[in-house]
Amino acid sequence: MLLLVMCLASGCADEPEPVALPDPPSTEQISEDLVGLRFDFFEDGSGARPWTIEAEEIRQLRIVDQVVDDSGRVARSRVALALRAEKRSIQGELILRHRREAPNWVFEGGGRSGPNWRAGDAEATLFAVRVLSDSTIRRRTLAFSPIARYENGRYLAPLAPYEQRARALFDSTFASDSLALAAETGLNRAAADALAPRGSKLYALGAGQPPAEVRVDSVRASLLGCQYVTAYADPPTPEAARWARLGTTSSVMGAPLAEGTALNRPLARALEGVARQRFEIAGVDTQRLRQQRAIAADLDGDGQDEAVGVFTIGEGERRRSLAVAASPGATAPRLLFERVPDRPSGFATLSLLGVLDVDADGAAEALFLEEGTEVYRYLIVTFRGGRFTDAFRGGGGGC
After folding, report:
1. Which of 130, 49, 127, 124 is nearest to 90 (CA)?
2. Please, what is the Cα angle at 16 between 11 and 17, to 5 degrees?
3. Its domain of life (predicted)?
C-alpha cells in the first residue's frame, strides 16, 4: 500500500523490458564447427579412443537440447551424432560450447556427453564363448569358437577361405603320411593364425557387463574330418567365467556394456504368450513349455527394449525348439520374428547366445547356435530395411 501511495504521489518508472536472448547456433553452423573437433568417444582399461571429425564422416546430426545463458553470451548444445569412417562407425552425444561475439557465435569446443559411445568396427570376428572347467586343478578356461567374420556390413563363414584348400588336400595323394600330416598341420595353423593367433587380444562379452579383455593362450584347429577352430584364454576375473557368452576381436563393439538385460514382467509375459501361441498354431501341446534363455534388448533401434529367447517342449528326438522375439504391444503381445531348427538339414535345437549391436546402428543383432547330431552352425538375425531378416546362417563345424 505504501509503494502504491508513493507511486501515485511521485510517479514510478516503468520496469525495463527484458532483453531478448539471441537464437542459439543453428544446425548448419554446428555441422561446420564440428569439423576438426577431436574428442575421446570411448575409454576403458586400455585407455582412450580418440576421434577427429571430418565433414564427410557426419552421417546424422540432431540437436537434442540447447541453452543460452542469461547474459546471452554463452550457448551450450547437446547434439546426437552418427559418424562413420572407413573402418569404424560410432553413435553418441556431444556437449558443445559457443561464445557470442556479436553478431556471431564462435565455437569454443566440446566433448563426449555421458558414457562411452556405441561403436562398431567395419571388420571383426565374432565368437561364441563356452566355459570349460577342470575340477582336478579347479581351473576354468574360456573357449572361443568363431561364429562369423563381419566385413563392411556382410557376414562371412569364418572357415570359408580354407575349405577349398582342405578339399584339395583331402583329395591329394602324398608320397608319405608325414608329408600329408605336414600339409594338414600347415593348413590348420593358417586358419588358427587368421582367426585368433596365440597371444592376440579378444574381448569377452556378457549381458549387462563391460567387455573383458583376454589374451589367447593357445589355439586348436582342424579343417579335415572334424572341422573347428577354438581359441583358449583364461577368464580375466572369476565372475567373467559365469557371464561370458560372446566374444569379438573388436575393442569397441561391446561398449559401453554388452547388450542385454533381464526381462521385466511385461516383457516376460509377452514373450511367453507369443511362444505359446506359435507352438499351438503348429499343433504342439504347450503344457510343458520351458524357457531356455531370454533377454531384453533394443532389437529394432527404436529406443525401447524388446524380448528375445528360446523355448522348448519335449525331450530327446521329440524335443521341439523355438526362437522368438516379441514386444508387449498396445493391446496384445506382438511377434517380431520366430525361427525353428532346420530339421531337413539335420539340425534339431536352437539356443540363444546373446545379442550384440555389431554395426553400431542402435539395433542389436540376435545370435543363435543351431545344433544337430555331431554338427552345429550359427544364425544371426538383424533388423534391416524395416524388418527382421537372417543376416547369416552358417559357419560352425562338426564331424
Report:
1. 49
2. 135
3. Bacteria
Phi, psi of 344 (to 5 degrees): -60, -25
Cell numbers at 154, concatenated: 556382410
Q: How far apart are CA 307 and CA 294, in angstroms?
A: 7
Into which CATH architecture does domain 27-116 fall?
Answer: Roll (3.10)
Distances (CA, A) of 188 to 129, 220, 227: 20, 8, 10
E strand or H helix at 184, and its extent? Answer: helix 177-195
Model confidence pTM above 0.85: no
Question: Which tens digits make up the pLDDT trace of 298-309?
Answer: 999 888 999 999
* Close Cβ partners of 135 (under 8 Å, ≥ 6 residues apart): none
What residues have CB less than 8 Å from 265, skipping those under 6 apart?
none
Domain spans in the chain, listed from the N-terminal domain onward: 27-116, 122-248, 265-398
Could you give the C-alpha distances from 278 to 263, 267, 387, in angstroms and in order? 20, 17, 19
Cβ pair 338, 278 in contact under 8 A: yes
CA–chain centroid gap for 388, Å, is 16
* Residue 329 grid cell: 504391444
Where do the H-state alpha helices sit in 196-294? 240-243, 265-281
Angle between helix 177-195 and 160-171 (nearest 10): 180
Q: With contact defined as beta carbons under 8 Å apart, do 328 and 283 qualify? A: no
Q: Give which of 67, 68, 95, 69 is closest to 80, Cα–Cα.
A: 95
Q: Which three cell numbers stand for residue 110?
A: 566440446
Element (H, E) at 188: helix 177-195
Burial of 16 (0-12, 13-18, 19+ CB in 10 A): exposed
pLDDT digits (tens, 9 = 90+) for 253-298: 887 788 999 999 999 999 999 999 999 998 988 888 999 999 999 9
- Hey, what's the cell of 219? 589355439
Which among 190, 130, 126 is positioned nearest to 157, based on CA atoms? 126
Cell (9 digits) for 291:
524357457
